[in-house]
């Protein structure tokens, strides 16, 4: 333990030994799509940069400056012979248990999977990256009411008000990952997944109504193939619509930076919406439907337009010329950098460790390095 101990049970802000436990579906960083894994990667690298000792539990094809413990050799979504991805996550939990005493804090990004295994003598926190309006989650959080949680937006918490949320930490990107674009591509952009909740049909209707080209950079999950074949595929056969497929991180800068706007026509309670801040990092305005986290991330009339109807969305396209791409980029730099995200998490880590230390002092007869 390299942190200094104070008399009242608090710790001084010395470097921490932190475990970042990622899902195994994608490598870190992801080769293509993968929002959760991308955020865990940015957080890990920023924490290393700030001088903390980080161990990353992730797939073996991950690239990181942290120490890597890999329960599987490659990301499971692109692993051709993987039939049961849960098996590798159970192996991952066993690796965490085996190494737990080496850390000051465990940071899980594996949803509720680790809850039965997390009764360890090490402080832990879980960032929930997905939707929480699933009925079965009510029973999960009845059984595990004391798990300490991080939300990625305040709206994300609404279905589970009884859960033990410690803080909301908005996602962040490396400041130099994307650069300011000029928006001269004369097209609208859609980036993400083709699925019912992401609203691709709305995006296409907006493009047709405004007579502006729509470029679609999106993946199609197996679960959404039927939706794509039955409801979307035929809509792509129009000269204004161009389907590009999945793109990597380097391609996003040009794709978003040249776009007149990002269309974010969601019709579900989006927990965060990483693509919104990716667009902001390029200075590209966002036209988003008022669902989920959107009002927390976007500033209406500054970084884009928040709309409730198709009529409003179509009108918003004509108002894009009044927005400043420089100001959008400045807003990103102020609110959504990886540095800010890491600092928010570090404050949470120290707070939880201090609580744990005070409990040790109250109970007595427990040495610091045995507890942590």
Q: Would you kindly provide a written description of the structure presented here, covering whatever features stand out?
A:
GO terms for molecular function: glycosyltransferase activity. The chain is α/β, with parallel strands linked by helices and 372 residues long. It has helices at residues 35-49, 85-99, 136-143, 200-210, 225-232, 249-257, 274-281, 294-297, 310-318, 325-335, 338-363, 368-371; strands spanning 17-21, 53-57, 67-69, 105-108, 124-127, 148-151, 164-168, 187-193, 213-219, 241-243, 261-264, 286-289, 304-307. 34% of the residues lie in helices and 16% in strands. The strands form two sheets. Strands 3-2-1-4-5-6-7 form a seven-stranded parallel beta sheet, with helices on both faces. Strands 10-9-8-11-12-13 form a six-stranded parallel beta sheet, sandwiched between helices. Helix 1 (35-49) crosses helix 11 (338-363) and helix 4 (200-210) crosses helix 9 (310-318). It is built from twelve helices and 13 strands. The protein starts with 16 loop residues before the first strand and ends with a helix.
Task: Explain the layout of strands and helices.
Layout: E1 17-21, H1 35-49, E2 53-57, E3 67-69, H2 85-99, E4 105-108, E5 124-127, H3 136-143, E6 148-151, E7 164-168, E8 187-193, H4 200-210, E9 213-219, H5 225-232, E10 241-243, H6 249-257, E11 261-264, H7 274-281, E12 286-289, H8 294-297, E13 304-307, H9 310-318, H10 325-335, H11 338-363, H12 368-371
Parallel strand pairs: 1-2, 1-4, 2-3, 4-5, 5-6, 6-7, 8-9, 8-11, 9-10, 11-12, 12-13
Helix pairs in contact: 1-11, 4-9
């Amino acid at each position: 333990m390299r942190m200094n101990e104070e008399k009242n049970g608090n710790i001084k802000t010395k470097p921490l030994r932190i475990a970042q436990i990622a899902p195994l579906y994608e490598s870190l960083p992801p080769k293509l799509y993968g929002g959760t894994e991308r955020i865990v990667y940015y957080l890990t690298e920023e924490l290393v940069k700030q001088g903390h000792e980080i161990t990353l539990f992730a797939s073996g094809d991950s690239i990181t400056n942290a120490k890597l413990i890999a329960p599987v050799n490659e990301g499971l979504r692109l692993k051709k012979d993987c039939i049961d991805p849960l098996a590798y996550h159970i192996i991952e939990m066993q690796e965490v248990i085996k190494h737990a005493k080496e850390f000051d804090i465990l940071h899980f990004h594996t949803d509720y999977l680790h809850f039965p295994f997390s009764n360890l003598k090490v402080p832990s926190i879980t960032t929930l990256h997905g939707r929480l309006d699933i009925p079965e989650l009510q029973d999960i959080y009845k059984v595990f009411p004391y798990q300490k949680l991080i939300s990625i937006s305040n709206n994300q918490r609404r279905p589970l008000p009884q859960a033990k949320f410690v803080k909301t930490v908005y996602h962040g990107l490396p400041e130099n990952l994307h650069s300011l674009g000029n928006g001269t591509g004369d097209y609208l952009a859609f980036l993400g997944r083709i699925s019912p909740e992401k609203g691709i049909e709305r995006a296409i209707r907006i493009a047709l109504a405004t007579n502006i080209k729509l470029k679609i950079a999106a993946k199609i999950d197996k679960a959404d193939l039927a939706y794509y074949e039955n409801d979307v595929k035929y809509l792509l056969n129009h000269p204004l619509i161009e389907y590009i497929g999945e793109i990597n991180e380097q391609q996003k800068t040009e794709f978003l930076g040249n776009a007149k706007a990002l269309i974010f026509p969601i019709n579900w309670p989006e927990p965060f919406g990483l693509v919104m801040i990716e667009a902001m990092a390029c200075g590209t305005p966002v036209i988003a439907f008022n669902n989920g986290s959107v009002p927390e991330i976007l500033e209406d009339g500054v970084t884009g337009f928040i709309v409730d109807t198709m009529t409003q969305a179509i009108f918003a396209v004509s108002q894009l010329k009044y927005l400043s791409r420089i100001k959008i980029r400045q807003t990103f730099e102020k609110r959504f950098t990886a540095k800010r995200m890491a600092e928010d998490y570090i404050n949470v880590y120290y707070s939880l460790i201090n609580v744990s230390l005070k409990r040790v002092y109250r109970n007595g007869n427990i040495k610091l390095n045995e507890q942590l």
